[in-house]
Write a structure and sequence with these properties.
- The chain is an alpha/beta fold.
- Helix content is about 30%, strand content about 20%.
- It has a single domain, classed as Vaccinia Virus protein VP39 (Rossmann fold), CATH 3.40.50.
- A six-stranded mixed β-sheet has the order 2-1-3-4-6-5, with helices on both faces.
- A hairpin with a 6-residue loop joins strand 5 and strand 6.
- The longest helix has 16 residues.
Length: about 190
């Protein structure tokens, strides 16, 4: 079984409830990029108006499309205004695709996993984005790079048509992941 981090489901739900109340009172069109068991949005769809919902995952499950959600987000023209990137790991490839192809105000939920990937402490995804080719980076340095990159991304990284208007981190005491909700105002071309 793959890693999951739903031990603090209440924190994830409360974070989403805040943004749905504040920005999506008339309904949300949701793309759930890492649907997993579907517990989060199954709960929220009973509480809030959700005009559209599409949940996908790379893990097969009866009744859902098995697809790499980064490929969906890396295409222009998708209609979503809520993107849930509840990956147990680093969601930056997906986040970059959202910023590249989004053409409306967006609410994004990110789960950023702890830095424990491999001997160098940096994922291949992050190495690629930052252009790092050096091997053997100490884990303490890798952790600082990851923390700085997280702050950079949440502050409006890549400067391609979005401005952050609200960013909240939910407390996850004792957890191995960080939960963020971010509201992005679209400032670029439509």
């Amino acid at each position: 079984m793959g890693k999951t981090d739903n031990h603090n489901l209440d924190a994830k739900l409360d974070l989403r409830r805040h943004f749905l109340r504040r920005y999506h009172a008339s309904g949300a069109n949701v793309f759930d990029a890492f649907q997993g068991s579907g517990k989060i949005w199954s709960t929220l769809r009973n509480e809030f108006s959700v005009s559209g919902y599409w949940g996908v995952d790379v893990k097969p499950k009866r009744g859902r499309l098995k697809i790499d959600s980064a490929r969906v987000l890396d295409q222009p023209g998708w209609p979503f205004d809520v993107i849930d990137l509840d990956a147990y790991g680093l969601p930056w490839k997906h986040y970059r695709a959202v910023l590249t192809h989004g053409r409306r105000d967006l609410t994004i939920f990110l789960t950023v996993g702890s830095l424990t990937m491999g001997g160098s402490g940096l994922s291949n995804e992050l190495r690629s984005i930052l252009g790092i080719t050096l091997n053997g980076i100490p884990n303490a340095v890798s952790a600082k790079i990851n923390e700085g990159f997280t702050k950079y991304c949440l502050g409006g990284c890549w400067d391609i048509g979005y401005q952050s208007s609200e960013c909240i981190e939910a407390l996850n005491r004792g957890g191995n992941a960080r939960y963020f909700g971010i509201r992005l105002k679209h400032t670029g071309p439509t």
